[in-house]
Amino acid sequence: MTALVESPNSPVRVSAVLDAPLSRWLWLVKWILVVPHYVVLFFLWIAFTVVSVVAFFAILFTGRYPRPLFDFNVGVLRWSWRVAYYSYGALATDRYPPFSLGEEPEYPTRLEIVYPERLSRGLVLVKWWLLAVPHYLVIGFFLGGFHLGWWSGGLVALLTVIAAVIMACTEKYPRSLFDLILGLNRWVLRVAAYVALMTDTYPPFRLDMGGTEPDGREDRP
């Protein structure tokens, strides 16, 4: 079994640009506007699960993630992230997300996952349930189970709503909050790619904030 690796240049890259100006009140109805996306994503995530199971056996026996299956699952993650970026995962753009599995370079956020030519046949047995447990505890706090009085959502949603309220009052999205929210989402997406068997690079326990990756490469749409 290969050793866990933490690399400063993650195979999962998330870049984003904070749109400006943003509507002061559109965020109040975005939960309605994204319903068509949620319907489509419901079926896409069922397909994602089936594809991941097929990929599991392919990696176990061949050490390779079939490229068409990989591209499909990257597309589902990419689509989901764009919807989250538009809605209550960031509220950082008012541009309606496209119904697309592709890269969509004109959209203000981008998710890239480097295709692995070879994957460990041993790690595929344990990384998605055993090795990722510490990260599950962390991202569970990010995405849900965070309790503060009546609030029972995750830290990401809480910070996003705070940013939206500030924006409604000042017409400006706080840059520091944007950087933090992007860092939290970047952590979640790295873990998602790892447990979906798309990389053997262990996600770092590191909060890389801001719209660009920590190596300074600016993947702006």
Give a verbal description of the structure.
The radius of gyration is 17 Å and the shape is globular. 48% of the residues lie in helices and 8% in strands. Helix 5 runs antiparallel to helix 7 (175-195). With 221 residues, the chain is mainly α.
The helix count comes to 7
In round numbers, the mean pLDDT is 90
Sheet with most strands: 2 strands, antiparallel
List low-confidence stretches.
1-7, 146-152
Q: Terminal Cα separation, in Å?
A: 38 Å
Query: What Rg is obtained from the alpha carbons, in whole angstroms?
Result: 17 Å
> Helix-strand pattern, N to C?
EHHHEHHEEHH
Describe what is shown at a glance.
The chain is mainly α and 221 residues long. It is 48% helix and 8% strand. The relative contact order is 0.21.
Keywords:
two-stranded antiparallel ribbon, mainly alpha, 48% helix, 221 residues, 7 helices, single chain, disordered N terminus
Secondary-structure map:
Blueprint (H helix, E strand, L loop, with lengths): L11 E5 L13 H4 L1 H28 L4 H20 L22 E5 L13 H5 L1 H11 E5 L2 E3 L1 H16 L4 H21 L26
Antiparallel strand pairs: 1-2, 3-4
